[in-house]
TrEMBL record:
<protein>
    <recommendedName>
        <fullName>Lysophospholipid acyltransferase 5</fullName>
        <ecNumber>2.3.1.23</ecNumber>
        <ecNumber>2.3.1.n6</ecNumber>
    </recommendedName>
</protein>
<keyword id="KW-0012">Acyltransferase</keyword>
<feature type="transmembrane region" description="Helical">
    <location>
        <begin position="7"/>
        <end position="27"/>
    </location>
</feature>
<feature type="transmembrane region" description="Helical">
    <location>
        <begin position="47"/>
        <end position="68"/>
    </location>
</feature>
<dbReference type="GO" id="GO:0005783">
    <property type="term" value="C:endoplasmic reticulum"/>
</dbReference>
<comment type="pathway">
    <text>Lipid metabolism; phospholipid metabolism.</text>
</comment>
<comment type="similarity">
    <text>Belongs to the membrane-bound acyltransferase family.</text>
</comment>
<feature type="transmembrane region" description="Helical">
    <location>
        <begin position="389"/>
        <end position="409"/>
    </location>
</feature>
<keyword id="KW-1133">Transmembrane helix</keyword>
<keyword id="KW-0812">Transmembrane</keyword>
<keyword id="KW-1208">Phospholipid metabolism</keyword>
<keyword id="KW-0808">Transferase</keyword>
<keyword id="KW-0472">Membrane</keyword>
<feature type="transmembrane region" description="Helical">
    <location>
        <begin position="205"/>
        <end position="225"/>
    </location>
</feature>
<keyword id="KW-0444">Lipid biosynthesis</keyword>
<dbReference type="InterPro" id="IPR004299">
    <property type="entry name" value="MBOAT_fam"/>
</dbReference>
<dbReference type="GO" id="GO:0006656">
    <property type="term" value="P:phosphatidylcholine biosynthetic process"/>
</dbReference>
Amino acid sequence: MDSNQMILIKLFISGLMSYILGIIYQLCLTKQSIRVKHFYNISTGLLISYFNFGIQTGHSFITCMIIWSTIRLFGATRLMVALNCIFCMSYLLCGYYDKYVNDVHEITWTMPQCVLTLSLMALSFDIYDGQRNLKSRKQCSNDKKTLPLMNEDTALERIPTFIEIISKIYFPPIFLIGPQVKFKDYIDFIESRESIFESCWKPSILRFFSGIIYLSIFQIGNLYWPTRFLLTDDFKSMGLLAKLSCIAVLNKITLCKYISGWLISEGACIMYGIARNPLNTHQHDRCSNVSIFHFETTATFRGIIESFNITTNQFAMKYVYKRLRFLGSKMLSHLFTLFFLALWHGFATGYYNTFALEFLIVKMETDIANKVIEYRTKNHRFNQILNNIYIRWIIYLLMRIHVIYMLSYSLVSFTTLDSQQWTSILSEVYFFGHFIYIGWFIVSMLFNYFIPIISSQRKVPIEMKNK
């Protein structure tokens, strides 16, 4: 058994422990003081971290100390937000660089550091938003005006204590692989004295066994069809369609690994009680990181983004994309957001290729959808054809096939990472996806640039004629 397999076993044991700890919390600690709850979450989280990463647990603790010190020193200012974001990303990237220099390919402390980085960056923004909202309220009361408040669902109007910060960071079900949990939701959860074990244990166990099913598919599939098969002569001897189908199957198996981890982690969050939806107490979806039905049935890449790694995508939308409004371009904001996500994953070229393809594919999907909608409004016959149930099913199946094949094509570089490997695999299918999507992007940009010029030139003779 290699070291990477041992780490994966430890992660699985940690996931199981989170369920047991959640049961203890629900049955014994909900009525206890907030201080006792914090101590329980910090101590158990640190033990789980030490069990997995040993003395390297110090990296996360040091990061928390520096972030809290910066918050106390500079307060809820833009400088504080900038310093914390730069420090968190720099510390994480130093960890990646150390792995690269030492040629380390196994899971290390950088994995939970990824989760911690986003969590502490979000905390810094939330504190800034909260203090800004307080100032807005005071201004409203003085001027008798109503001003819009920023991100009320996440904004913090008081600066958390160091104990609160590390309690949330080391919260057992989310520390290792997520999901991202709003700090405001965590504080509400800690302050609640209600035990919901009777209503949460069934959906928790259901999520756990769903995760086990996906984990089993990954283990069995990876045993017979490992990713390295794509580098063999057997793969190279296949036809183009067979190669694409093989890539689709192998990457579908790989995705099961991520989905299983998120499902097991989400189940633990449900067991603790933090996942209960405050708007509908019968639902426990507040920590959902993957929507299984949506992911397995969606016919668009936008649907994949909405249903896969949900909390990370929500972070990117709220704290990166929307904060880039000053660029004045949705496309530029989208590009910078995807670059941030690629950098957050690491230095490997495979990450940047995957996110670049995501941008290009979503751009093509959006362009086509807009043109179809525009033509449907102008052409009644075309609209009737598309409303036919059989035509709709045919279109859905074609779009679903496109998503399955091209999602796997995009993920080849994400799963292999090494530039020589993923370029070798994609060269076997002639980089056809790159040609399609890059070609569409170039043509659409040229089209959008020249059509307004041509239209304006046509208007001039018409206006002259009218005169």
